[in-house]
Amino acid sequence: MDTHLTTDQLITVIPGWLAWKLVHNTGASFGLLSGDANLLISINCSAILLILYLYHRCVPSLPAQLGFSLLIGGAFGNLVSRLCFGYVVDFISFHACPVIFNIADVEIIFGLFLLLCLHLKKQ
């Protein structure tokens, strides 16, 4: 994405709904902890270890395995980006949402949502 967009350039994909906008995010969601790369890398590594621990602690069903896989994939993708570049490349912009995010963020959200739904279904 870095090779096709310039920083803060907006390309409309679906008018009034979806656009691409390149942002080099040195923080977490909503720019929290911006510029504190070491802390974010530590949090990211801790989250990955926690997810792996929870995965091995339970005997996950196939949908739960998918949820855990999405979480690990998203967390690992953002970690690699942070380690290689010092920031995460965000580029997906929905007009109704003030946050710009990336595919790894989508994986994390869907993984959390799936695991939450499965947990609530057990209750």
UniProtKB/TrEMBL annotation:
UniProt-listed Enzyme Commission number(s): 3.4.23.36
Alphabetical keyword list: Aspartyl protease, Cell membrane, Hydrolase, Membrane, Protease, Transmembrane, Transmembrane helix
Cross-referenced Pfam families: Peptidase_A8
Bilayer topology: Multi-pass membrane protein
Active site: D90, D105
Segments passing through the bilayer: 37-55, 67-88, 100-120
Matching InterPro entries: Peptidase_A8 (IPR001872)
Recorded GO MF terms: aspartic-type endopeptidase activity
Annotated catalysed reactions: Release of signal peptides from bacterial membrane prolipoproteins. Hydrolyzes -Xaa-Yaa-Zaa-|-(S,diacylglyceryl)Cys-, in which Xaa is hydrophobic (preferably Leu), and Yaa (Ala or Ser) and Zaa (Gly or Ala) have small, neutral side chains
Cellular compartment(s): Cell membrane
Pathway as given in its UniProt record: Protein modification; lipoprotein biosynthesis (signal peptide cleavage)
Role according to the record: This protein specifically catalyzes the removal of signal peptides from prolipoproteins.
Family: Belongs to the peptidase A8 family.
Protein name: Lipoprotein signal peptidase
